[in-house]
């Protein structure tokens, strides 16, 4: 069966860099992958497409006036190692709802793109700053079976991660694990390890903060493409392998805010 | 006439610390101030209330089952220098809409709290990570006449600030100015100064990154209360005075993303 996952986390924590590098690693391992960016920044797939920003689904729909008549090749683009990329695009600033956009995008992809059904792995890259019904749409539309949350050892990203767990609990959706994207805060691995343990889910990876990631990003390439023999490329490969393995379907219970403050104040 | 303002910015950039310290400074200057926190974190007023977290309006409404019968003293609390504090509370994680909550809260406050009309200054503290119709509610419900955006010199907060300008442009709402809350990034004051200049609005303050702010926060007090003779208390006083002055009503035009990348890559 198709692996349907979503990657959530606070803005700027490293969702897109992690999702695109994991997608590239899965592609390298021979899997058919589709990556759907749901962040209004629409930058989930840039490093899979040689630095190119693709038209967002909402831009194409707004230009045509309605979703009918949109062709697959106008909204789905093939990137590194055959990864299929699509960007939802953001709400009309100040007036729209991010959730409405994601609903329209999913319905359109289901109509025009065989990849959304045929991919071995379907990945959604979703912001977790605000845990509202809008950003839960990939889950409520039954396109996601398990989620992964990216955090660092600092209070704000951990707070956001915990709030995402509250949403997952309301929606009875499993959390496959926590991914630490390091910011070089003190005791970071220990803090995030204890956070994952308290939630009862595995800490799947600690991705070091590395200039290689930013350098590859500047070249418009994933680490898997631009630095395939680097240590950090292997970190993403190992994470990709862990994402593929079956896990207990643990629906998280959010932790107490006081605990998070103490944990990150170390 | 009542000064009706909103403070927007990316999560974690310093909206609440700035809003509560400016509110305290306005209170010290004899103004009647009401501060309404619209961030799901509901931590806008903690340092005005001696470190106490007050019940959110959404919690009170959910507990009673409907907004009728809620009394003012259940949702509005008086803090340092008489500042009236209210916290909207977040959406039901994963299902609700932050905008719905803000609408319910504003309607309820207008019914039960004379302060919302009688305050000299009405301030909304609103997250700007996602610029959707939900977080524009204080503006669309005509409770805000001018806005202020907080940023640092780093790309992500500047990107969020620019996206907020896109929303303000759609809503034809003036931007009173940019506030730089320093993160000690290289050339920060210059970068944020040029950003404000490119938008055609003043850079109202550069708030230094100071351990005093965090120290006071840990004591559950504003800088105005716990460190009134510090330099940084004066920075907030000067900012409060600038907020009170009349400005040109400039509706911002968002800048090009490429310009933002170049600007912050200095
Ligand atoms: N492991 C890492 N090492 C160094 N820089 C990183 C790492 N992960 C992410 N970054 C950088 O952090 C920034 C934000 O990451 P991004 O993936 O865009 O976050 P998000 O998608 O969560 O908003 C990017 O510029 C990226 O290059
Ligand atoms: N000028 C400053 N100097 C030092 N720390 C600051 C400053 N401004 C904010 N902070 C700290 O940054 C953190 C985030 O600030 P906060 O006001 O809660 O952000 P927001 O409301 O935008 O999410 C807080 O812990 C606060 O103490
Ligand atoms: S559901 Fe979420 S994205 Fe949609 S308008 Fe409400 S807060 Fe904004
Ligand atoms: Mg991203
Ligand atoms: Mg805040």
Please provide a brief summary of the model.
Two copies of one chain form a homodimer. Chain A is of the alpha/beta class and 266 residues long.
Describe what this molecule looks like in 3D.
- The structure is a homodimer of 266-residue chains.
- The longest helix of chain A is centred in the middle third of the chain and has 16 residues, at 155-170.
- Chain A has 12 helices and 8 strands.
- With 266 residues, chain A is of the alpha/beta class.
- The N and C termini of chain A lie far apart (43 Å).
- The A-B interface holds A 10-12, 40-41, 90-98, 127, 129-134, 136, 139, 156, 159-160, 163-164, 166-171 and B 10-12, 40-41, 90-98, 127, 129-134, 136, 139, 156, 159-160, 163-164, 166-171.
- The complex binds adenosine-5'-diphosphate (2 copies), iron/sulfur cluster and magnesium ion (2 copies).
Unreliable spans of chain A:
none
Amino-to-carboxy terminus distance of chain A: 43 Å
Tell me the series of helices and strands of chain A, N- to C-terminal.
Answer: EHEHHEEHHEHEHEHEHHHH
**Protein chain pair with the most extensive contact, residues per chain:** A-B, 34 and 34 residues
């Amino acid at each position: 069966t198709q692996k349907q996952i979503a990657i959530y986390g606070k803005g700027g924590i490293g969702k897109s860099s992690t999702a695109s590098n994991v997608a590239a690693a899965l592609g390298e391992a021979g899997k058919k992958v589709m990556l759907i960016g749901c962040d209004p920044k629409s930058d989930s797939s840039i490093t899979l497409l040689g630095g190119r920003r693709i038209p967002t689904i909402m831009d194409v729909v707004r230009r045509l006036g309605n979703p009918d008549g949109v062709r697959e090749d106008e909204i789905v683009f093939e990137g590194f190692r055959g990864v299929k990329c699509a960007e939802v695009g953001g709400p009309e600033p100040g007036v729209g709802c991010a959730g409405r956009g994601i609903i329209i995008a999913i319905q359109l992809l289901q109509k025009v793109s065989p990849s959304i059904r045929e991919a071995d792995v379907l990945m959604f890259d979703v912001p977790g700053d605000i845990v509202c019904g809008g950003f839960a749409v990939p889950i409520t539309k039954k396109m996601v079976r398990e989620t992964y949350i990216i955090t660092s050892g600092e209070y704000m990203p951990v707070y956001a991660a915990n709030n995402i767990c509250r949403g997952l609990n309301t929606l009875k959706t499993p959390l496959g694990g926590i991914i630490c994207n390091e910011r070089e805060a003190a005791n970071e691995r220990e803090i995030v390890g204890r956070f994952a343990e308290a939630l009862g889910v595995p800490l799947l990876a600690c991705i070091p903060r590395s200039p290689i990631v930013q350098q590859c990003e500047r070249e418009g390439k994933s680490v898997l493409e631009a630095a395939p023999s680097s240590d950090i490329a292997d970190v993403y490969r190992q994470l990709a392998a862990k994402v593929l393995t079956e896990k207990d379907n643990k629906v998280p219970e959010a932790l107490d805010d006081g605990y998070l403050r103490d944990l990150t104040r170390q």
